[in-house]
Specification:
Blueprint lengths: L6 E4 L3 H9 L5 E4 L5 H6 L7 E4 L9 E3 L3 E5 L4 H5 L10 H7 L4 H6 L2 H7 L5 H9 L2 E6 L2 E6 H4 E3 L2 E2 L6 E8 L6 E7 L9 E8 L4 E7 L6 E2 L1 H7 L3 H16 L7 H16 L1
Parallel strand pairs: 1-3, 2-3
Antiparallel strand pairs: 4-5, 5-10, 6-7, 6-10, 8-9, 11-12, 12-13, 13-14
The structure holds flavin-adenine dinucleotide.
């Protein structure tokens, strides 16, 4: 199948992209890597009147270092993160995650901003940004706002993003020298979308501990009691997780809980090593 005919506009800058998006009353769509939008167009699941190409927009390729975070422009690709062209302030977490996304041709095109905007619940950046408590920067014609990764995603393929807004960047917290992280992705084959993700970050110097279940067919699930127990030790967190995952996932129909138990267990075991 081929897409329904659409117009094409190559945006010069963020302002130009926002104007073009606003001019179409919700009927225009931004395109970054095209890895997800391309198939949706071909299957006619998306039928925008106009595509706004973001790839030449320099502002979406900014890298701005602050003492406590790195702002990464939305159009940096997974491959550029994997290769360390984008500095990794997460002590290796982001490079590992990027390298596990799909296969290299997809990573060469797919962008961090596109992945977050698309918000496939099984996608890797969605869970990674949630466990890091990253911020998502969003621009619209009325200005810019910042949302935490956890509140940005409100459902499967659903975010707080409006049709005339863009994800412009992510603010990724800088992990301290003593911070530890683990990311365990269960997939049928290497590089496939996840069936379950267990992700944990413990950064005592910042008094930060967080454990998250990803790929739950909904926004990533924060495990508050497990996160609290992680401050004590990974084994205390493991004990807390057993009960907590069961309770929290009981509200999620059709989820294979065992995958999530194993993903979290392995992530916490890795932290304990
Ligand atoms: C075969 C295959 C395997 C994959 N495996 C994985 C995997 O294992 N893990 C994983 O995490 N991902 C995986 N992906 C997804 C892929 O890595 C991309 O991240 C994803 O397709 C979206 O990025 P993109 O830049 O291509 O976005 P696009 O396809 O260009 O856009 C996706 C959506 O986001 C919107 N959009 C794009 N950029 C912005 C922006 N800056 N602001 C607002 N809206 C925007 C578009 O309008 C569209 O609705 C896979 C994709 C394919 C094709």
């Amino acid at each position: 199948m081929k897409p329904v005919a659409f117009d094409y506009h190559k945006a010069r800058d963020v302002g130009d992209a926002l104007t073009a998006l606003g001019a179409h009353d919700g009927d225009a769509k931004p395109v970054a890597g095209g890895c997800s939008l391309g198939p949706m167009l071909n299957l006619r699941l998306a039928r925008p009147a106009k595509l706004i190409d973001l790839r030449a927009v320099g502002e979406l390729r900014q890298l701005v270092r602050a003492p406590d975070h790195l702002m990464i422009g939305a159009c940096w690709t997974h491959a550029e993160i994997e290769d360390g062209i984008v500095p990794d302030v997460t002590r290796g977490l982001m490079r590992q995650v990027a390298g596990g996304i799909a296969y290299r041709p997809v990573r060469n095109r797919g962008t961090i901003g596109g992945s977050l905007a698309h918000s496939d619940p099984a996608a890797d950046w969605v869970t990674t940004m949630a466990v890091l408590d990253a911020g998502i920067l969003i621009s619209g014609r009325s200005g810019t706002r910042r949302e935490s990764a956890l509140s940005f995603m409100i459902g499967a393929y659903a975010t707080t993003l409006q049709a005339d807004e863009l994800v412009t960047a992510v603010e990724v917290p800088v992990l301290s020298a003593g911070a530890r992280w683990a990311y365990h992705k269960i997939a049928r084959k290497t590089g496939e979308f996840a069936l379950a993700i267990g992700a944990a970050v413990h950064d005592p110097a910042r008094d930060y501990a967080r454990v998250v279940c990803g790929a739950v067919e909904a926004p990533p699930l924060l495990l508050p009691r497990t996160s609290e127990a992680l401050r004590e030790s990974p084994s205390a967190a493991m004990k807390a997780a057993e009960a907590e995952i069961d309770t929290l996932l009981s509200a999620h129909d059709g989820i294979f809980k065992q995958h999530h138990n194993v993903a979290i267990e392995r992530a916490l075991a890795e932290l304990g090593r």
